[in-house]
UniProtKB/TrEMBL annotation:
Keywords: ATP-binding, Chloroplast, Kinase, Nucleotide-binding, Plastid, Transferase. One of its GO terms (cellular component) is cytoplasm. Pfam families: ADK. It is found in: Plastid, Chloroplast. InterPro entries: Adenyl_kin_sub, Adenylat/UMP-CMP_kin, Adenylat_kinase_CS, P-loop_NTPase. It comes from the Eukaryota. One of its GO terms (molecular function) is ATP binding. This is adenylate kinase. Its EC number is 2.7.4.3.
């Protein structure tokens, strides 16, 4: 599992870790955004909460993540769960299925840096790759031209997301205290790609 505040670098590190270990990356936020994009009933409901930076209700999230964990690729290759669980009830739902991580990576980054990362983040809709206009700029003008920005990546909304994170994080950490590996800002530098071999 990997956890951390909004824009702490979970998705970025997941790309590197799954490349190295061949795991299946399962991100609760990505699953929710796929529902939103498909315009499903769950997606329409989830969008309301995501816009406010709040947790999407368990009745949507819990079964969605459970289904994804049970798919064949995750069962065969192992998984890296990103942004889940975010509450005691979500962790309890996993415990009830006897699902526990071997390692719980906790990314720790100061809040002023998080805001800067959110505002500069861009996504490539073709490859799914995460960029930052300053820290991880696109490789070519062609890629730059097609980059998109998430609707919740504004300074105003990230402050709401940070508040929700602060309210829930300690409870979740207490459940996985025996397997937590903290990674602090400074141990991962801005040169994301140079870090590839050093991380983990
Ligand atoms: P989610 O999509 O999980 O968003 P989040 O937790 O806010 O995290 P982000 O995706 O914003 O950031 P990240 O940590 O992956 O950072 P990234 O690598 O992109 O959730 C969205 C919403 O869905 C939630 O608000 C909630 O409503 C709902 N939701 C999700 N999970 C839920 C759950 N379990 N239950 C209920 N609701 C749920 O990096 C950010 C930027 O920084 C990038 O531009 C990157 O290039 C740059 N960067 C990364 N690392 C570095 C570095 N070392 N140095 C410099 N720049 C860096």
């Amino acid at each position: 599992m990997i956890s951390g505040a909004p824009a702490s670098g979970k998705g970025t590190q997941c790309e590197l870790i799954t490349d190295k270990y061949g795991l299946v990356h399962i991100a609760a936020g990505d699953l929710l955004r796929a529902e939103v994009a498909a315009g499903t009933e769950n997606g329409i409901k989830a969008q309301e909460y995501m816009n406010k930076g709040q947790l999407v209700p368990n009745e949507i999230v819990v079964s969605m993540v459970k289904r994804r964990l049970e798919e064949q690729d995750a069962q065969e290759k192992g998984w890296l769960l990103d942004g889940y669980p975010r509450s005691v009830s979500q962790a309890d739902a996993l415990e009830a299925l006897n699902i526990r991580p071997h390692v719980f990576i906790l990314l720790q980054v100061p809040e002023d840096i998080l805001v800067e990362r959110v505002v500069g983040r861009r996504l490539d809709p073709v490859t799914g790759k995460i960029y930052h206009l300053t820290y991880a700029p696109p490789e070519t003008p062609e890629i730059e031209a097609r980059l998109t920005q998430r609707s919740d990546d504004t300074e105003e909304r990230v402050k709401l997301r940070l508040k929700t994170h602060r309210q829930n994080v300690e409870d979740v950490l207490s459940i996985y205290s025996d397997v937590i590996v903290p990674v602090s800002f400074g141990s991962i530098t801005s040169s994301l790609f140079a870090e590839k071999s050093r991380f983990v």
